[in-house]
Amino acid sequence: MTRHLTTYEAPRFWPIRIKDHAFTIRPSAGPHPLRESIPLGVVLRDVLKVVKTVAEAKRVLAEGRILVDGKVRVDHKLPVGLMDVIYLKSSDSYYRVVPDKINKLALTKITAEEASFKLVRIQGKRTLKNKSVQLNTHDGRSITLKVDDPFNIQLGYRPFDALKISLPDGQILESIPMEADTYVAVIGGTNIGSYGVLSESIPNRDPEKPAKVIIGDAMVTVILKYLFPIGKGSPIINISGTGEVA
Fold it and tell me: What is the CATH number for 94?
């Protein structure tokens, strides 16, 4: 593991020019892995273009003018990834990171009301002591729930389901199960950046399990790990402006 990252080695979906600089920002350890995120400094300079240099990005962050998921962030290396919510105080504007067909990740502008929540996908679930269940989400969160019977299958939350949580406190507002008629976003594979309706429930939660999704007038097959629930029947997040920024 090195502290440096050359522009040639950086993920191709980052909006940086290989020949402009020999090195770019290496994301720090955080909620998203390197290959599925963009450093906050790159977002400010190359995606939103609110600064021209990394030095300017550091200054803006040090002044507390940038919030991610409702919290002030000062690290220009912070990895920003899927479904994160970014707030720029200077322009009073909000953005959500969504999957994109061309850039893999893109920012779409959202309202202040929509910026009050975030969607997270459950990656794992395990039973703890003292009648508790821990849910691990795609953005590195660990949500612990107290339940009367942690082995009760009626608890509801399962891997690959999504949770709508409030920002910045992370309280669960509702769940979006991975089942028939759920509106999903495709976050990987050849159909990345597409949106559609799941045509069937998926009792087997194997990440490689194929699922049928209706995208437009077509029925396509996408493996489970590339699906992200975003609503029951219709999306609860704005997807109309997807890809308009990045």
Answer: 3.10.290.10
